[in-house]
Amino acid sequence: MDVPVWQRINEEIHSEIENPNFVLVCVAEDTGGEAVAGPIFDAANPTYVQVIDEDHIISSTFDFVNVPSAVWIDEESRIVRIDEGTYSQIHEFDWGEEKIVFGNDVYAAALKDWVKKGAASTHVQSSATVAAHVRNHSFEQLKADAAFRLGNFFRLHGYSDKAEKYWQMARALNPDSVNFIRQHLTLTEEGSAGETFWALAASYERDGKDLYRPLDIVV
User: Fold this and answer.
1) Which of 34, 196, 201, 209 lies at a C-alpha separation of 20 to 30 Å from 176?
2) Which residues pair with 85 in a beta bridge?
């Protein structure tokens, strides 16, 4: 999640909409915990809820494959949208001879419409649509989640070789999880949004694959 941008959007919602019944929860998924994610939150001076998820439990629960992704949950604990990239503005830059474009300028507007109108918003999806967007966990993916957490456990206790073994196992069992790839990259000098990740994004672009589920929002 683009922390400073979402802080601005959260402020806009609470200033533009009278008595908004809305809570924004931002989850940082990082095995580095508070030491890594805390300064990122602090730099944005956020007024929304911040959670640090060291074992990527949120992504496993909703089967997100990349960050940032989001889920909308209404007052009755029903999911009304799920599994969409939540960059709230368009980003574009050159990568060698290629151009990489990601993000959108419609998601934040749709969110505001939902906060304002609730169930009457045109952006609320039916239960059938939401169910269709929930990715089914295969047995291999479940094993990948377990291996990933074992890797985190061994790294926490100083067993780097065993940590690497189980992280690699997780990636082999669930190669489509960009989350696993990016988390592993945080342990490298370039980090999770460096050369390796953008080369991956460029390969997705070439192959016509999506890093996120395509948005079906029109505002």
Assistant:
1) 34
2) 69
- 117 lies in some domain: yes
Query: Does 64 fall in a domain?
Result: yes
Decide: helix, strand or coil at residue 93: strand
**Cα–Cα distance measured from residue 193 to residue 182, given in angstroms and rounded to the nearest whole number:** 8
DSSP labels, 172-192: HH-TT-HHHHHHHHTTSSS-T
Report, as ranges of residue numbers, the positions in the chain whose pLDDT lies below 70. 1, 88-89, 91, 93, 95, 98, 100-104, 219
Does residue 166 sit in the same domain as residue 113? no
Q: Domain range holding 183? A: 139-207
Do 31 and 186 form a contact (C-beta atoms < 8 A)? yes
Is the Cβ–Cβ distance between 137 and 126 less than 8 Å? no
pLDDT tens for each residue of 96-124: 776 766 666 788 899 999 999 999 999 99
- The answer to whether residue 41 sits within a structural domain is yes
Residue 172 lies in a domain: yes
